[in-house]
Q: What sequence folds into this?
């Protein structure tokens, strides 16, 4: 299984486990997700959960959402390439980089403004 899939499953597992109430139909999904995550990763995730912490944090703008500390660019690149599981050096949570959605199209550049003095000159020349 690819690292990106493992982290996606772990993130979904955390989402289900940290809901206010765990519903009966979610119990089955939680069990299935736990089977897809390797034992050492799941053990570290559970250890953090036992301490009352979430085991995985989303990485946004090169910042860990768990402790709000900046993460080295090399870690971000590892996550983008899906080469390895990465931990935050500060809070020790697993870092999860969500799939990037298609970027919004860039807004059209605003037309250049003509300074007021040139507008007056143009009006005077037309008269």
A:
């Amino acid at each position: 299984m690819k690292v990106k899939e493992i982290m996606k499953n772990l993130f979904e597992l955390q989402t289900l486990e940290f809901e206010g109430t765990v519903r009966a139909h979610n119990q089955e999904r939680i069990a299935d997700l736990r089977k897809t995550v390797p034992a050492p990763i799941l053990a570290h995730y559970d250890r953090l959960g036992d301490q009352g912490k979430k085991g995985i944090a989303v990485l946004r703008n090169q910042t860990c959402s768990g402790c709000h500390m900046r993460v080295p660019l090399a870690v971000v690149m590892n996550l983008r390439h899906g080469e390895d599981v990465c931990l935050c050096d500060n809070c020790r949570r697993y870092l999860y980089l969500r799939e990037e959605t298609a970027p919004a199209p860039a807004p059209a550049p605003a037309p250049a403004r003509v300074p007021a003095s040139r507008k007056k000159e143009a009006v005077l020349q037309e008269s």
Q: What stands out?
A: The two ends are 76 Å apart (CA to CA). The chain has one domain: 3-96. The chain has a mean pLDDT of 83.
